[in-house]
Here is the input.
Amino acid sequence: MQNKFVWIPLVSLVFLGCTKTIIIGNNEQRIEEAPVTYYEEVPIYGTGSGYEINTVNNNVPYSSEPVVSQSKSFNISPLEAFDKMQDNQNVLLLDVRMVHEIPQDGKIADSVMIPLQVLGSNLHRLDKSKEIIVYCHVGNRSVEATQLLQSQGFDAVNMSGGIEEWKRNHLAVRWK
Here is the structure.
């Protein structure tokens, strides 16, 4: 009987951040260490029967962080945002959270609220001559909003960590 090995599909393990490959064969199991930064061979499965490997794509980069096309100043910290607001009157603070989040988390004074879900249809409410600092609860939605704004020609930056990081830095919030 021929000794065959079964490879657990790497693609799903790669995106989960796993660094181990489990190989199960006839009466044998072993775990091999996988490279963290680059996988040397990532199989591309064909449409034939089973999981036939048609080709191998070499040096496919792996990253646990989402790849975001960012300009040099895509992210700023809450302290940098606070300083910009104090020093520059040409700054607009944009909150992209939902209205029902304010009673629980508060909001930053003088910020304009346009939820991410309706931002695309409300771009006319924003001034392209101002630098826009975008924030949300923890910084996920604001990344998407910042990308949208930049793609439409706005000078926008993401405040990393959102209002939670703002509060961790002991900066003031309003509750209404």
